[in-house]
Amino acid sequence: MQQAPTKKDKFFDLLSNLKGHLLSLLIAAVLYIGYLLIRNSRQLTNTILDHLTTPYKRMMGALCDLVPFSVMEIIVLLTILVVLAVVIRCAVLAIRRGKRLTVILRTIIGLAAAGLLIWDGYCWLWGLNYYGDSFSDKSGLSQLPVSEETLYQTTVYYADLANKYAAGVSRDENGIFNEELDRIFAGSGSIYAGIVREYPFLDAPSRTPKRMIASEFMSQINFTGVYFPFTSETNINDQAPSALIPSTIAHELAHQRGIAAEQEANFVAVRACLTSGEDVYAYSGALLAYIYLGNALYETDRDAWAEVYNSLSEEVRADLTANNLYWDQYRTKKAKAAEKVYETFLSSYDQQLGMKSYGACVDLLAADYMQKMQDDRKDYLENVDGIS
Predict the structure, then answer these.
(1) What is the pTM of this model?
(2) For the segment 262-315, what is each residue's pLDDT rounded down to a tens digit?
(3) Residue 387 lies in a domain
(4) What 3 state SS string does 346-377 have?
(5) Are residue 119 and residue 188 in the same domain, yes or no?
(6) Domain with 231 in it
C-alpha cells in the first residue's frame, strides 16, 4: 500500500514544479540589484552607456527605421495579448486539473518574473541615462536661479521669435497652423544639423519618427509622444495640435540622442528647432519656449505676462487658443491618473520635479539667452575697440 505524501513531500513537489519560474524571478532580481548598484557610479554608468546600451539602441533604431509603422505599438499589443492568454490558460488549467495551487503560483511567479525582466531592460536601456553625464554636464550650460527681469527678457525674446516665424507657416481659414503632417515628419531628418554644430555630443544617426495608431488614447492620457528604448523609436501622437508636433518630434529625438531629463530634452528641442533652418520647426520651437516661459512669468508677474501676451500676433494667439481648447477636452480622471503614474515613474529615477520638470527648461532657456546676450555684447565691444 502506497504511503500518502506528507506535507513536506507536497512542499518539495511544489518547489520542484516552480523552480524554473523561481530561477527566472531570481535572475530578474539580480539584474535589478545590479542596475541599482551601477547607477551609483557616474564613471561606470557612462562606460555602459557609451559601449553597451547606446550601440544596442542605435542598432535597433536602424532596424526599426526600415519599416514605416511603430514596432513599439506591435510589441505592446502582443504583450497585452500574451498576458491575457496566460491568465486565461491559468484559469482553464486550474478548473480542469488538480494542483490548482501549483498552476496559480506558476502563473503569478512567471508573470512577475517576466514583468521584472521587462523593467530591468527598461532600467538598463533607459534608466541609466538619468545617472550618466547630463546635457548640462556636457554643455556647461548651468541651470541657475532666474531673476524676474531675466525671465521677462527671455519671454519677450521668444515671443518675438514666435511672431517672426508665425508668418512663414501655412494656416487654415481660421488662421490656425495647418502645415501638412507628412511634410513635418519628412523634414525631421535634418533638424539636428544646426544644434550639432553647437553641441557635437548630440550627433547621432537620423531616425524617422513614427506616427502612432493609438494617438487618440495618447491624447486621453495627455501624452504627445514617447521614446521606446527597446526599439529606439520616437513615437508621436499625430492627433495633438499640429503647431507643437514639430517641437514634440524634436523633444523625442532628444531622448533618442541620450538626453533623459525632460527639462533638458525640452531645451534641446527648442534649440534644435530654432537652428534647423526650417520655419515650421523654428516656429514650433519658439512657441514651445514661449509656453513654458509665459507660464512661469504668469506665476511671478501677471502684468508683465499680459504685456508680453498682448505683443503676440493674432496667428500665435490663435495657435495657443487652439492648443488649450484641444487639451481642455481631455482633462479627465484618466488623464490625472496617467499623470500620477508618470510622476511616480520619474521619481523612481530620482527626477524629483516629476511632471513639473517639463517646466524647469525655463532655467536653461534663460541661461542660454543671457549667455548669448553676453556673447553679443562682447562681440560688439570688440568691434568698437577695433574701429577706435
Answers:
(1) 0.88
(2) 889 999 999 999 999 999 999 999 999 999 999 999 999 999 999 999 999 999
(3) no
(4) HHHCCCCCHHHHHCCHHHHHHHHHHHHHHHHH
(5) no
(6) 136-381
